[in-house]
Specification:
Layout lengths: L12 H12 L9 H8 L1 H11 L6 E4 L2 H11 L3 E5 L9 E3 L2 H10 L9 E5 L5 E10 L2 E13 L9 E3 L6 H17 L4 E10 L2 E8 L6 H8 L3 H9 L17 E7 L20 E7 L2 H11 L8 E5 L3 H6 L1 H9 L3 E4 L1 H9 L5 E2 L11 H6 L5 E4 L6 H16 L4 E2 L2 H13 L17
Helix pairs in contact: 1-2, 2-3, 9-15, 11-15
C-alpha cells in the first residue's frame, strides 16, 4: 500500500504494541518515534527514565520466585498489586491484602519462574487518582487537561467516575503534575497525544504510567474544554506547526463528569464489583452547572434512579464506614429510611445515627436482606466489599447480585456512593438545567 505513514496513537493499546514491529519493517510511524513509545511501554525502561528524571513512582519489582515475592512484600507491606505474566484464570491484576490472599493468587498463576515472572507493586491506599491528557510537539506540551477520579486509586480508569476540570485538587498538586508531564514529554520528544496517570496523596505525587497515545478520556476533555485535542494531535503528527492552547480551565463556568455504564444485568452470575480490571461496557459524559449537578446527571444517564424512600447501606471496612457517616446523616434529614447490616448499624449507632437492621443472607433471621431485595422494598443498595473471608464474599456477592437481578440501583464504592448521596440531597431534580452542549459558555 506504501502509505506516507501510519498513525498508531488512536487505536488503544494494540497499535502501541505493534509500533516496534512496524518500525522493524521500515514503516514510517507518524508522530512520536517507536523507540519513545517502547520506552514508555517497557516497565523497566520507563522506571529507569523516571529515576533519572527524579520522578517518584510506586515501588515495584519483577520477581521470579515465591521467596523473592515474600521478601519484597515484607519490605513494602500490604496491600500490594500483583500482575502475573501468565494466569490460568485470565485475571490480569489483583490487589492483595494479606498472606493468605497472596498465596491464593500465586497458586492461580500456575507457576512463578524465570519464564513467568510476576510484577509486584506497592498499592497506596486512599490516594487520589489524577490523569493528564495532553498533546505535545517535539517534546513541548501544547495543550493539556487535568482530571480527577471520584473513586480512590484501585478502580480501573475505564470504570472510574472522572471529573474535569478537577474540583478537589491542591493547586500545588496541579503544578507538580504539569511539571512532571513537561519533563516526560521533553525526555521522550513526544509529537502527538499522550496520557499519564498519577497517584496523589498529601501533595505527594507518584506516576503510575504514561501512554503515548490518545486515551479514553480524550474525547471527554475535548468536549468539556470545547477544544478538539485529537485535531491538534493529528496536525502535529502530519508535521504542521501548531499554536499552544491558551485556554484556562479556571475560566470554565461548568463541570464535566464521565460516568461508566455497566452490563452486569446481562452477565449471569457476574459479581458487580469494581477492581483493577476494567468491567464497564460504555460511558456517558455530562455537563452540569456545578460538581453535584454534573454527578447527578451522569449517574442518572447510566441507569441510576433517585431513590424514593428506602436505602440499604452495607458499608464494608472502617474507612468506608467513616466516608459514609455524613452522607447517611443527610439522607435521614431528607426523610429517607436507612436499612443496614448489623456491623454498619452498630457503627452508625455509636456515631448517633439510628438505622434499621436487616440480617445477612446466610442468617436464618427476619427481617432479611434477601427478602427486602426480592420484594423490591429497597430503592438503592450500597454495598462496599469488606475483605476476602469466605463469609464476607458469599454474603456480599448474594446482596450485590440480587440488587442487579431485581433491577435495584447498586453502588459498590464508598466515595462514589457519598458523591451520589450529596448530589441527590443538594440538587432538586426539577431544577436540573437541560441545555445543549453549545449553550454552556466558557467565560
Amino acid at each position: 500500500e506504501e502509505p506516507k505513514g501510519v498513525i498508531v496513537s488512536t487505536g488503544g493499546q494494540i497499535p502501541n504494541n505493534l509500533a516496534m514491529r512496524l518500525h522493524g519493517q521500515h514503516v514510517n510511524i507518524l508522530g512520536t518515534s517507536p523507540e519513545s513509545i517502547d520506552r514508555a511501554e517497557d516497565r523497566q525502561k520507563f522506571s529507569t527514565m523516571c529515576d533519572e528524571l527524579g520522578i517518584d513512582q510506586p515501588r515495584w519489582s519483577e520477581l521470579t520466585s515465591i521467596e523473592d515475592i515474600y521478601h519484597f512484600v515484607d519490605k513494602v507491606g500490604f496491600p500490594v498489586l500483583i500482575r502475573p505474566s501468565y494466569v490460568l484464570s485470565g485475571a490480569a491484576m489483583n490487589v492483595v491484602s494479606n498472606k493468605d490472599e497472596l498465596l491464593h493468587f500465586l497458586e492461580l498463576a500456575a507457576e512463578v519462574s524465570k519464564d513467568h515472572p510476576v510484577v509486584v507493586s506497592e498499592f497506596i491506599e486512599q490516594a487520589k487518582e489524577v490523569e493528564i491528557d495532553a498533546v505535545a510537539q517535539e517534546g513541548e506540551v501544547k495543550a493539556y487537561a487535568i482530571s480527577e477520579h471520584v473513586e480512590f486509586a484501585g478502580v480501573h480508569s475505564g470504570d472510574a467516575t472522572i471529573v474535569f476540570p478537577a474540583q478537589k485538587l491542591y493547586v500545588e498538586t496541579i503544578r507538580r503534575i504539569k511539571k512532571i508531564a513537561r519533563s516526560i514529554a521533553k525526555e521522550l520528544n513526544i509529537s502527538g497525544p499522550f496520557n499519564m496517570q498519577f497517584l496523589a496523596k498529601d501533595n505527594d505525587i507518584k506516576v503510575i504510567e504514561c501512554n503515548l497515545r490518545a486515551s479514553r478520556s480524550f474525547p471527554f476533555v475535548s468536549k468539556v474544554l470545547k477544544y478538539n485535542f485529537i485535531d491538534m494531535a493529528t496536525r502535529i503528527m502530519l508535521g504542521e506547526k501548531v499554536e499552544a492552547l491558551n485556554k484556562s480551565v479556571f475560566d470554565l463556568d461548568y463541570v464535566g463528569v464521565k460516568a461508566s455504564q455497566f452490563s452486569f444485568a446481562r452477565l449471569l452470575k457476574a459479581d458487580p464489583v469494581l477492581g483493577v480490571d476494567m468491567a464497564s461496557t460504555g460511558e456517558v459524559g455530562c455537563i452540569g452547572e456545578n460538581y453535584y449537578e454534573a454527578i447527578l446527571k451522569s449517574m442518572l444517564s447510566v441507569g441510576h434512579r433517585i431513590p424514593k424512600k428506602n436505602i440499604l447501606i452495607s458499608s464494608g471496612p472502617l474507612r468506608s464506614k467513616v466516608e459514609l457517616i455524613n452522607s447517611t446523616r443527610m439522607l435521614i434529614e431528607k426523610g429517607f429510611t436507612i436499612y443496614s447490616t448489623e456491623g454498619t448499624a452498630k457503627f452508625f449507632k455509636e456515631n448517633g445515627i439510628d438505622v434499621n437492621i436487616l440480617y445477612w443472607p446466610d442468617e436464618d433471621k427476619e427481617p432479611n436482606i434477601m427478602e427486602y431485595l426480592h420484594d423490591r422494598k429497597i430503592d438503592l443498595a450500597i454495598n462496599i466489599p469488606k475483605n476476602h473471608t469466605k463469609r464476607e464474599l458469599d454474603n456480599g456477592y448474594k446482596i450485590r447480585r440480587a440488587a442487579v437481578d431485581y433491577n435495584i440501583p447498586l453502588i459498590t464504592n464508598a466515595r462514589l456512593a457519598s458523591a451520589f448521596i450529596y448530589a441527590i440531597c443538594k440538587v432538586d431534580p426539577s431544577e436540573i438545567a437541560i441545555k445543549s452542549w453549545d449553550e454552556y459558555r466558557e467565560y
